[in-house]
Amino acid sequence: MTHAPSQRQRERIAYRRRQAIRSVLLAALSTAVAGTLLAVGVTGAPGWPRVKESFFNGDVAVAYFPSVLDGFWLNVRLFLVCAPVALALGLLIAVLRTLRGPVTFPVRALTAGYTYSFRGLPLIIAIYLFAFGIPGLRLQGTPDVVVLGGAAIVITYGAYLAEVFRAGIESVHPSQVAAARSLGLSHRQAMRHVVLPQAVRRVTPPLLNDIVALQKDVGLISLAGPVDAIRAAQIGVAKSGNFTPYVVAAVLFILLALPLIAITDRVTLRAARAQNAGA
């Protein structure tokens, strides 16, 4: 026996379909109007020909695209390494900060001092300190500036991510930990099987936002000297006297960020729907 929707239900479905089509058409129309007005306003400005020549020169873009792309590969590799390491460091610090008992007070004090310090320290200064200060100690086995700059990014972002993880851990009601302990689970098992799965799920949207910010800030590695996309663009600007290589680098960074931003928006929307459904 097949289910046949009632007349009232068919009318409701048809109404929702008409409303969805109407919303899409209105959004497309308003976007087209806003885009046209913006394009007319920018291209009609008195200084637009000079700006176009200085920032959107096609010949300069084609000439310096290969060198900027080569440098951009360094940014991609740095991001692929720094992001998971910073997440692991942040989670470790968050777990250590949530330890209980007087015996673990030194650990909590050290982790709190770490998060306070590196959340207040500008990333640019951290990169300078790591890339130029540590080699000055003349220790054997000192890594190159790319590794030191990446370490500065990881440690700085680890402090931010630790606070996000800690907020998620503390959002889990203590009764759930007590229930897990009453079932015979140790503190470590309760954290692993009860607290952390819920905490990570709750703070996934802000975590992804921080990862998007990290993806942009890997470009600051150019301050330490390596030729990444920004440094390559800077060299191109110096040679050509034109700012178009910066625009080429910006487009590459945006293209890299778009998938992660889309995932962040989707996860945030799903979390909001789940919260509304549970409310």
From TrEMBL:
InterPro entries: AA_ABC_transptr_permease_3TM (IPR010065), ArtM/GltK/GlnP/TcyL/YhdX-like (IPR043429), MetI-like (IPR000515), MetI-like_sf (IPR035906). It is a multi-pass membrane protein. The keyword Cell membrane applies. The keyword Transferase does not apply. It is found in: Cell membrane. GO terms for molecular function: transmembrane transporter activity. The chain crosses the membrane at residues 20-42, 78-99, 120-139, 145-165, 243-263. GO terms for cellular component: ATP-binding cassette (ABC) transporter complex. It comes from the Bacteria. NCBIfam families: HEQRo_perm_3TM. This is Polar amino acid transport system permease protein. It comes from Actinoplanes octamycinicus.
